[in-house]
Amino acid sequence: MFPVIAIKGQLFEAWLDGEGIVVREIQRGQVDWSYPASGVGRVLIDVVTDRALDEYARDLRADADLMKEHGVEAAGKSCGLQGRTSGDLTSPSRR
User: From the centroid of its chain, how far is CA 86?
Assistant: First the structure.
């Protein structure tokens, strides 16, 4: 199961640099969610705009095909998410 939030509208990421806060529009990113009382560990939830949903679905399909052919370690290559950890909240656009 891959949790996904699809939104209609704009999505932004923000971070601090040496001069202040930087805000940039993105088409997809991730949220690190945890709720200890639920008994579920940390979960990365993809957030995708409606404009990027088709591309996101194609990327997931490509990852599934890579996993079938090369194993789980190949996952994430097409989505730009390979090597991401639950503490890495940057969007694929910043990679």
Answer: 10
